[in-house]
Structure prediction request, 544 residues.
Amino acid sequence: MTNFLEILIRGLMLGSVYALVGMGLTLVWGVVGIVNIAHGEFVMLGAYFAFWIFSFFHLNPLISVALSLPFFFLIGTMIHKRITERLTNAPELSALILTFGMSILIWNLAQFFWTNTYRSVPYLTGNFSVMGLILAKSKTVSFFLALGITLSLFAFLKYSKMGKGIRATSQNSEVALVCGIDTKKMRALTFGMGIALAGAAGAIVSLQWVIFPQMGGSYVSKAFAIVVLGGLGNVQGALVGGFIIGVLESLVTQYMSAKMAQIIPSLIILIILLLKPTGLFKK
Amino acid sequence: MKPCWSIILEDKNILVDEGKVEIKRDNLLFIEGLVSGYGKMEILHGVSLSVGKGEIVGLIGPNGAGKSTVLKAVGGLLKITSGKVVFLGEEITNHPPYQIVEKGMAFNPQGRVVFPEMTVQEHLDLGAWTIKERKQKEEALERVYQLFPWLREKRKRRAAQMSGGEQQMLSLARAMMIQPKLLLLDEPSLGLSPKWVQTVFEKIVEIKNSGIPCLIVEQKAAMILEYSDYGYVLEMGKNRFEGKGHDLLQNPDVRRLYLGG
Prediction:
């Protein structure tokens, strides 16, 4: 029983990080209308961001997580203004092709500059022991970081003026315009936030797993499953979706095999699209 | 049968009272030679109209005449390639929508007019997006709740849970949050039951009587002309007729062509 509980908690912890990636993807997809295939590459860049800061400046990785948010937010808004803004009224296929190209470009550059060497951030090793449960320190800290970022995002979207503007843009951009909302700015902000979430997730990931240039692929496929589970543009849905994927992965890894766990995202996308294409939480 | 271009080439017909050369109107909104459209597709080929103080102005015409396009161009949602729009004595041609809203022009677009997942309260907050002062915002809210008292009880209700008529009224309330100097309405009767159409129009008259002029695009031509102080008939992106609402209703050509006999 303790073992089962441990696996469950491990799954939730895993899921909280997946949720960060998924929320970024769903937010950008829902508000900006761009399906960002390159989303996983920003997770990879976030991981390297934390790694290099740790190697060069020996800064505590927790600080890199905090730094990754504004850093990747700036990168995201810049990419949107220079590149993806022109996709605003373009067909979805254009966005797919452009971001697919961007994805290939980014991980190849990463491979070129940083080689295929597996790297990791040696920080927070060892375990916590809480009420008979043994939990890896790095994963526990990651969980609370991810949860903190998630709750701040929810509060921002629900209560702040900008958050309301972003939701308005996503629900009806024409009415948002006539309210006097600068929807172009809202889209740029949202794109920045999406990339910031991916980057922060990457920085958190670097605390617990090895990092390498092609790591983005597995995150983006999980993120797609999360978006499908939670419903397009539904940020709360993405959190639940993240937890579901994390727990399933944890259970399958334990009771079947780690290889089987790899097919979960694709399986979920398939099942949900067949049975309930609007996601689990269609209001 | 006349070839279709002859209609375009004809001068627009201005219906005026006999003996008077023109009807004097104070211009609040003044549009001249408006050319606009979607991307490369030009819909308006030079439309001129004006809205005076305290007027309801009806804009009618067959489907595809460009009625909605006029409102979108004036509201800054579409690029104007030629012509000019003057509002309160200032040129606002091709200004971004938020600047136009700030100047006091409220726009109630056509069709899906609400944010489905937002509450009534959130709609009104968003309607006040351009208002910076907190006190002004609260006053606006109070004023709008007085105009639409039933919204106060439903302020926690999500728009998706409301009927089409309620949504249209909510949209009107949202537009009223900036205390507009001019209200643009694009087919406020669209998809509503006759009872709701009546209710919405009574509210529009109430708004007009409080001193806020309205420029209204309507498919229900006879009804809107009944309410209008002045009316314009568009056809194929150009002015076709204009005159006092009552005169247009009486005019045999307008009746035959646009009011179904």
The CA atoms of residues 75 and 192 of chain A lie 7 Å apart. The longest helix of chain A spans residues 2-32. The interface with chain B takes residues 161, 164-165, 167-168, 171-172, 174-182, 283 of chain A (CB under 8 Å).
